Every structure is written in structure tokens, then in C-alpha cells.
Amino acid sequence: MRPGMKSVRHRHDDALSRLTWGAFEHLVAEHFRRQGYRVEHTGAGEGNLPDGGIDLKLHRDQELIVVQCKHWNSFQVPHNDVHQLIGVMHTVGATGAIVVTSGEFTTAAMEAAVKFRHIRLIDGKTIRAMLGPVAEPIGEAPASPEFPAWSGAARPPVRHTHTRQARIDRASAVAAVAAVVVMAGALVMLYTFYIHEIQQAQMARLLESRKPVATEQQPVASLPSVLPGLRSGLRAVEAMRTHPPVVHDAAREREIVASLDDKKPIATAIKDQ
């Protein structure tokens, strides 16, 4: 903006104020087309190029009206722009001129327009009444057929109001997927660890269960070498108990006792074997 610009007395905050320069010019052009004018779009949608201050040319019968669009929401349109358009109107041979703004005009601009009956000023309140309800800008530009056939320019850019929310949603989705992957990896590691521990414990129990069996079998292995002598000794004792020796005379008794004394005790015989 140029130095010395005055701020608006009332700043609008609605769908129209959030439109782009190009979208605002297209709405204005569509309005005049519905009024029966043949609309020629000559502006670049930025309002600051050296195009002579003309954004639209309106043709109807013998009329030629030049239109300048000022999509200003924060500053008032000064009288310099009004005087500039008056000079352009005479240069191109127009029969009238219109300055349209989405905001306000300075007092000097309105006084300058009063002096020239062929120029008309349309401020923010008036243009809103002329256009009616305006839809909020959306994330996607409208299809090409919704724009007039006279427009040779590309569709005007539209503010992407949902871009930030889309980025947040994508970041949340990525974070959720990453959390799931981390949890799955942790579960796999825990499962592997516990399976290994269980296998180790089972192997240790199996080894412990085999040790007593080997210990009990050691005495059994040594029995065959002892059993023959033990059995013969037991049979001799049992025979003496069931069939005690009968001694008919003292001499025979002394011989038997002497023979028994010469034999080794059963425990000694078992030990020797």
C-alpha cells in the first residue's frame, strides 16, 4: 500500500473479505453480466499493475463503462484512484466509470466522484447487497464451466483453508502407525525372550529328572557280585535252623563244634566275596 493510506472505519470479516483478488473480480463481472452487459476482463486480478486502472469493460448498446475493482479490507480507497480512473475513461472513450471496493472510500474520494456525474463509487456495503450471499472459500477451485466464457485467464487461486488441518491429520496417522509398529516389535521381542526362557527351564527340569535314576541304578549294578555268597550263607543258616545237627555222642559233638569254629562268619564271607 502507498504511504498515507487511511484504515477503514469498519472492517468486514465475512466470506467476501476472504476471497482472493481474482475471485472478487469474477463475482463483480458475473453480476454485471446478469445485468445484460457483455463483460470484457482486462485486469490481472491483483489491482496494482499498470493496466490503466481498468479491470473490466462493460459493453451494452452504445455504452462502454470501465470498472476498477479494489479488494481492500483494511484501507480506504483514496481520491487519487478516482481521479486516475476519470482520466482513463476519457482516454478510452468510455461513457462511464465505476470503482468497486470491498471496503470503504475516503471522504475526498467521494467528494471527487460527486463532481463527475459519469463516475460511480460502490463501497463494501453496497457490493454485498448487490452480490447477495457469498459462499465461503473452499479448498478446491470451482470447475471451469462455472466461470464465464469471456474469461481467457486461468481460474483464480482459492485460499486453501484446510491445508493445515490436513497436515495435522497426516501427522497423527503417521504417529499412530509408528506406535503400532513399535508395540508390535516389542511384543515380538518379549515373546522370543519368554519362549527361550521356557525352553531353558524345561531343559533344566529334564536334566534334573534324569540324575536320580542313574544314582539308584548304581547299587543294583553291584549286587550280582555279592548275591552268590550271600545266598549260600543264608541257605546254610536256614538249614541249621530247620534241621539242627543231631549229636549222638560227645566225641561227635566236639568234632562238629570244632568244624563250625573253623568256618568263617557269614558276614566275613560276604565281605570276602
**Amount of beta strand:** 5-15%
Which secondary-structure class do the elements indicate? alpha/beta
Order of the strands making up the biggest sheet: 1-2-3-4-5
Shape: rod-shaped
CATH class of the largest domain: Alpha Beta
| CATH topology title of the largest domain | Trna Endonuclease, Chain: A, domain 1
Identify the CATH architecture of the largest domain: 3-Layer(aba) Sandwich
Q: Over the alpha carbons, how many angstroms does the gyration radius reach?
A: 59 Å
Helix count, DSSP H or I runs of 4 or more residues: 7
Order of helices and strands: HEEEHEHEHHHH
Question: N-to-C terminal Cα separation, in Å?
Answer: 126 Å
- Tally of distinct domains: 3
Query: What's the mean pLDDT score?
Result: 76
Number of strands: 5
Helix percent reads 40-55%
Biggest sheet record: 5 strands, mixed
Which stretches are poorly predicted, pLDDT < 50 over at least 5 residues?
Answer: 45-50, 140-161
